[in-house]
Amino acid sequence: MNIVIVDDELGLRHTLTLMLGAEGHETRAASDGASALALLAERDADIILCDLRMPGMDGLTFIDRYQSGPPPGKALVIIMSAYGDDDSAVDAIKRGAYDFIQKPFRADQVLLVVRKAIEREGLRQEVLQLHEEIAALRAPNGIVGHSAALQQAITVARKVAKHPSTVLITGESGSGKELIATLIHEASPRAAATFVAVNCGAIPEHLLESELFGHARGAFTGAVDNRSGLFEEADGGTLFLDEIGELPVPLQVKLLRALQEGEVRRVGDNAPRAVDVRVIAATSRDLEGEVRAGRFRADLFYRVNVVRVQLPPLRERREDIPDLVRHFVTVFNKRLALRITGLSPGAMRLLMDYAWPGNVRELENVIERSMVLADGAQVDVEHLPPGVQSGKAPASSGPDDDIDLSVKRRTESLERTLIQRALQQTSGNRTRAARLLDLSHRALLYKIKEYGLE
After folding, report:
1. Quick one: pLDDT band at residue 318, thresholds 50, 70, 90?
2. Band (72; pLDDT cuts 50, 70, 90)
3. Full residue range of the structural domain in which residue 356 is found
4. What is the reported pLDDT for 439?
5. CB of 258 within 8 A of CB of 213?
């Protein structure tokens, strides 16, 4: 166990350090209450042995300040005193001390009290873990947090779940949009049917139509069999279209038709097929801005934006961070067979201060990484990524560190540059440029419009 000794007598600090060290405990020592609080602010303890009467700050005042934080201390405090009486013991217990031991004491007395405290701490941790596991099970689809903004989003999601209306979930990347979509599906009359999720920005444009609507045999090279699309797979259930703002305009027209008419037509097929699908869309883009820019159809926007659920970024609901950390610690303890009890106060402070550009997904990644790197039962500051420790992105260590690593943005930039060069080489002849680019003439026209190269 990690034990902190607080006493103004150097000899007693030394004796307790040797005694507890021989039992395999890690010890730190402080000569007064103020020094002990500074020590504990860097890293909390499991048990604290604290003298009752010390210069500057007595043991009772130390308990008050330690347990009130910030952040509130969680160690079991054992008060030691050569001036002990029943009133002092009762007062210490009332203030939150675990036990009271009177000086002078024998080694076996101290060790017995410490062993009892360890047993109690073990039971407390087991109960805490059970509570966290139960809370994780009760959390709607892993949605963790008590902030007003998050609870408002959950309330709207639960209300709309009962109705077949199309839902648009908006929020930054990593904020939990798919979790809300899953919540809506599972709280809806369609819960027993299929939930199908697709990221519209992760599928190459030339495959998207076939992926969504299916294709008939022989519709194109490689179409050796009839194949149903995601709309048909979700028939009777829910189709979640993540990042719907990434859909190219021609596909937006076909999606609108499918939503309005309740039927889809496979690529290369003549007859439409009726489908009963509840569509939930999500985006991290400003769709109203995309409509104004002509990149997203207004009629499709109004069709999907029947009910909107707005998810706040993590930096706007920082009060949820401790809940999320406890949740992820429980999850990764199980998944990785670890026994991490939590984070040190210093590490938690850094998490609370960080801006979280990647939102909950980034926090989840940070917790998993830090738990793997932790040396003991607690995640400390040194186990956190450098960017979190410094409160900003890692400093550049080379000329290439500032390169944008977004595959999507880099691909768009490269595509735009290649189209410009092809048009320059062909003196603006789009048919010849399409051949150079290995694109269909139609696809080139769309991309020219998309990138504003007209």
Report:
1. very high
2. confident
3. 318-390
4. 81
5. yes
Q: Report pTM.
A: 0.59
Together in a domain, 104 and 167:
no
Amino acid identity, position 359: N
Dist. CA 51–CA 63, nearest whole Å: 11
- Looking at the structure, do residues 152 and 173 belong to the same domain, yes or no? yes
Model confidence over 250-276: pLDDT tens digits? 899 999 999 999 999 888 888 889 999
Q: Is residue 290 part of a domain?
A: yes
Q: Looking at the domain assignment, is residue 87 inside a domain? A: yes
The yes-or-no verdict on residue 59 having pLDDT over 70 is yes
Max Cα–Cα distance, the chain, nearest Å: 98
Q: Is the dihedral of CA 232, 233, 237, 241 positive or negative?
A: negative
Identify whether residues 159 and 218 lie together within a single domain.
yes
Structure tokens at 332: 């990764």
Q: How confident is the model at residue 395 (pLDDT cuts 50, 70, 90)?
A: very low
